[in-house]
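Example record

Each entry pairs one chain with its bound ligand, magnesium ion.
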Amino acid sequence: MIETGIPKLDEYLGGGIPEGKSLLFSISPEVEESNIGIHALHHNLEKGKTCVYVVSKSSPKQIEQSFREFGWDLKKYGEQLHVVDGYSRLIGAPSDENFVIFEPHDILSYEDVIDEVLETLPENTVFVFDSLSTIMDLCGEREALQGIYRINERIGKKEGVAIYNFTVWPYNESVMYRIKRGFDSIVEIKPIRGEALRGQEYYVSKVGWGGKEGKRVMFRIYRPGGIKIYIPKIVVIGPFRSGKTTFIKTLSERFTSVDRLGATIAIEHGTVDYGGYRAEVFGIPGQERFSPLMEKMGLSASGIMIIMDSSKRDEIDDILRMVDKIRNKNIPYIIVANKQDLPGAMNEYEIREKVGDSTVVKTVATEGKGVFDAFKILAEKIIEEGGSNAG
Ligand SMILES: Nc1nc2c(ncn2[C@@H]2O[C@H](COP(=O)(O)OP(=O)(O)OP(=O)(O)O)[C@@H](O)[C@H]2O)c(=O)[nH]1
Ligand SMILES: [Mg+2]
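Structure tokens for the complex follow.
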């Protein structure tokens, strides 16, 4: 299996792309970023694989720049990365690359060079094409696709994998039909609800082997950082002094809070970057007078964490009330059973017995124990229950 490295996508592909297969990133023209393949390229370089990057849309010199913007260092991969330069001849520029497409308007020229690459490099090589649509525009749609399918076959024979970026310009139906049939798997990239500024989503529309078709995940591309699943709003609630601020602070890369005499007196905010997720986390102070805020913020949440002090048995009714309200709204949530280090702390079974079927995660926020696990469990719930679009 060859992984894409895109969060959750490999899971939906049943582990990744099997050797010998192809994957097409089918990207709406409104999506600003038409190069999703570069993330798979970087991931496989990191994994120590031999990779070939076929550029048709931009200069080979651009690669280093793109890597730098994501915070990646191209130099460290040395001989692992080979570039097929389908660009320089287009603009009549000289090329420093070993593999050059001399006739970028002829798909046969691509085929010849890829053959040469396949003879030179070991099996299991990962090929990433920066723009299938550009190749189609240059070589003619039908001819290009026929050639590309021959290329895929030859890459497949050498147990390699071929990954393509494809911008979905308004092609005619028969071209789109050929494309849908011609690739082993297709992942569509679209702006969220047509609004590019909110971020993108990927949709797994075809997996020609055992995977999960029909999965939809919202993501953003960060510079530096790369692709992250984006969760716009996790709301953290819980009784007074249960450990919310301590929890969010431990979890967050950046954090702001307003505390007076140890109690939080305004909404606090942290940005979490963990396990392929980027999430905005909002903490509601525990004092009674903030409970209207809790309802207001909670309603538009992607997911909710209820943080409790597990040693305070008399607060369990408050927890139950919070859980009931959230259940009615169908918002993904977990109960964080904090302060497990204190004597008499209730365990997850006791808590579940009192509040009914809920996911309970034990933590000691002051020691950072269980904090990231709790985050990941909620994040996965949000993705699985489709709540990531809220906010
Ligand atoms: N023993 C123990 N103490 C904890 C733990 N988590 C937090 N505390 C302590 O509990 C007190 C309250 O923690 P905060 O994080 O301020 O609680 P909070 O929920 O933000 O409080 P409010 O925002 O005022 O409602 C502090 O003294 C923390 O150090 C824990 O896991 N174990
Ligand atoms: Mg607080």
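Residues 238, 240-246, 263-264, 285-286, 338-339, 341-342, 364-366 surround guanosine-5'-triphosphate (ligand 1) (CB under 6 Å).
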